[in-house]
Structure formats: C-alpha cells, structure tokens
Amino acid sequence: MSKYVRQDKSQRKHPVASSASSLIKAPVVPTAPKERPGWKGPGFIKKAPKQARQSGRSKPAAPSSAIQEQYLPIALQQLLLNTLRTSFPVCEEYETLKPMLEEIRVALSNGDSDRAFSRSDWMEAYSLRWGSIRALCCATVLAEMFEDFQEEIWVQNLLQDRRTIKSPLRAICFGGGPIEVMAFAAVLRHTRPPLTDLQNLSITQLQPDQPPIGSSSDTPILELHLVNKANWAQLLSCLETGLLTPPMLSKYASQSAKLNNAAFISPGDLSTSLLQIDILGASQNDLAAITGSAPALITFLFTLADLHAISTAKTAALLLKLTLVAPKNSLLLVIDSPEQPPDVATGAEVAESEKRRYHMGKWLDLVLMDKLVSVGVTGKPAWNELIRDENRLFRLEDGLKFPIGLDHVKFQVHLFKKQ
Question: What is the spatial distance between Cα 105 and Cα 338, in angstroms, rounded to a whole number?
C-alpha cells in the first residue's frame, strides 16, 4: 500500500504550526453561492421592487365627515320614495335609463346644466337618480332645523296650529325643483299628523267657531316659490299629483288599511309656484317682489356652487341684493356638495392652486357678513350664522327599497338669520 499523499485542496481539521514560522494558517472560507437558496418553482412570484419615495407634497387626506343624525322615521322616508316611484313609473326600467343618466352626469360635470335639463325625460331621470336621495338629505336637515331653532319666528309660524294660520308662510327656493317639493312635503308630513289620525279626534273637542282639523282650507300652510331657469312645470305637476293622491291598495286590503289610507300631504298643506327666470340677471326689485315683506325661508339646495361656477361676480351680487331686500328674521339655508382637497404640486403652484380654490364658507363670510378670517369683522354683519358644518355625510337607511340604486350624500350646510 502506497503512502497517502495529502493534496493541496484538502485541509486539515486543525492547522499545524510550521517549524519555520510561528504563524498559523486560517482555514479557507468557502465562497458564497451566487444565489440564495429559496423557492423557484412555477408558483414563485418575485416581489416587486420598492418604489422610491417621491419628493414633494402628497395629496392631503380628506377630512372625516360627521354623520348626519336621522330625524325622519324610516317609514316616512320609504313612503316618500314610494310616492316618487308611483309618480314616475319609468324608474322601473333602470337598465334603459343608464345611458341617459351617463349623459346627464357628463353634462353636469362639464358645467352644462342647460343641456342636462333641456329634455323632460332627462329631467325625470335626474329627479329619480339624484333628486330622490338629495330630497331625503335636505328633508332631514330641515327637520333638524325646525327642532333646534323653534324660537325663530318663521319656524314658530310653521309649527303653530293650522286653525290659527291667517297667511301662508313663504319659502323661496333659488334653483328649486323636485328636490325642494319632496323635501318640504316630507317635513310637513313629519311635523303635522296625517288627516287620518286627526279624524279620530272627537268632534266635541273642537270649539263651536272652529272648522274641523282635517278639513282643507283655501289658505295653504306653506307657499313654495321655485325660481329656476329650467322649465320644471310638467314634472312638478306629476309630482304634486302623486303627493296628493292616496296610494293604491290591494283589493284584499283590510278595512282598517282602507280607512287609514291617505295622501302623502293634504291639499291645504303645500302650494307650489314656478318662476322661470335667470336668477343671476334678476334686479333688486325683482328679488324684493319674490321675497315679500314678511320673514321668509330662502334656500339654495345644491345650486349655489353651480351658480358660483357660472359667474362669481353675479352670484355675489345676487347674495348682496338678497341681503338688502330680505325681511328681518328671514332665514337663509345653503346646502351643497363639500369641497374636495386638491391634488397639487409644491412651491408656487401650491399657493396659486390654494388661491384658486373655492371655499364656500369663507366666501359666504366675505359676501354675507363682510368678514375675513385674517382681517376680522368690519362693522356689524347683516346676517348671523346659526349653523356651519362643511363636511357631513347623510347615510341611506338600511332597508329602504327603490328600483334605482341610491348612494350616501356628502354635503355642507350653512344657516344664516337676517339681523
């Protein structure tokens, strides 16, 4: 047997000191493999490389919205949707309405309201898709206002006994249409019991010189004056017919259901009129004739931002004229979509974009109350602010049924009182 010769590649387990030197050779460290061991099968998905953090200002997060408290019973909300459903049976054909709704949405997003409301079928589709949920939202805000501000003269007159009403209250709705009619009808039904409940009272409870509570009179409780450039007359007529007509009952309905079946509102509760003019071109005398001499409720329900987009100067002039002609103790209610946070760059572009942004709250301060946050109040303002909330969310109640899908509504609300 030949003697074993250790090769160069072979290493001892323990180094041996050389006789020529006292140094000890370190063991050779094996080279690292080119790739780490890991899963390489067909199901392996390599992670995407991390994105480099972009410099500059990122888009600010939208502020959280306060949930609007529900003041209307869900049964009343469903009854309003049922009335709208029977007034416009076309809502049952939602699939055929989809192309029309898309064209309306595009026209409104481009600021072309004249085209969006140029056809009666488009106006009907708009009322079903967006007007229905906005009407529920506005009705809830009105119910909250009537509950929290009962000391205001206009609210007191609305809530008084109908037998003591001598002259109807006035509500002027700029840009008004089906939304206002449905909202005020819902609030009137909420604040006043239906005739079927009132008719259960004993006739002996009435004074000899007083008419029956349930009887309709020539004097309505509320006069709703709608001021709009678009012609909503045909659609409003259909809607009023639906509100004043008792719902259809099955032939198998009980006698109790038949006795308690009543229209959504009584004929003596609400009267509506449409004034078809371009409100941005109205004179001060025109506005004085519209508002009247008694305290009134003036509303801009999802219309003020559209007017501002058409002409900031003319919209400011409109509010200034209203300030001059509105009677003392009048209320001004503004409900509109909230402002969206901008997605802007940095530097000078940020300042320029912030300058161009439309802050409705600050703009109303400047126009109505002559007030700037950075400057302060200059003189006594003509309006006193009662409500300011720039980010609310109206959540649709679970269980509501409607052929067309409805969404939650984000909005801002401002309420002013004329001093």
Answer: 18
Residue 16 lies in a domain: no
| pLDDT at residue 42 greater than cutoff 80 | no
d(CA 326, CA 288): 7
pLDDT tens for 117-126 read 999 999 999 9
Does residue 17 fall inside a structural domain? no
- Tell me: the pLDDT tens digits for 216-274? 456 789 999 999 999 999 999 999 999 999 888 878 888 887 777 888 998 889 999 99
Is residue 354, in this structure, part of any structural domain at all? yes
What is the CATH classification number for the domain harbouring 176? Answer: 3.40.50.150
| Per-residue pLDDT tens digits for 166-200 | 788 999 999 999 999 999 999 999 997 555 544 44
- How many angstroms separate the CA atoms of 84 and 182, rounded? 9
pTM of the shown model: 0.77
Write out the two tokens for 208: 């000899």
Q: What is the count of structural domains for the chain?
A: 1
Buried b (16+ CB within 10 A) or exposed e, 227-257: bbebebeebbeebbebbbeeeeeeeeeeeee
Structural domain that includes position 288 = 66-194+219-248+263-338+346-418
- Residue 257 domain-assigned (yes or no): no
Q: Which residues of 119-137 are buried (b: 16+ CB within 10 A; e: fewer)?
A: eeebbbbbbbbbbbbbbbb
User: Is 360 within 8 Å of 338 (Cβ atoms)?
Assistant: no
Among candidate residues 416, 417, 419, the one with its CA nearest the CA of residue 380: 419
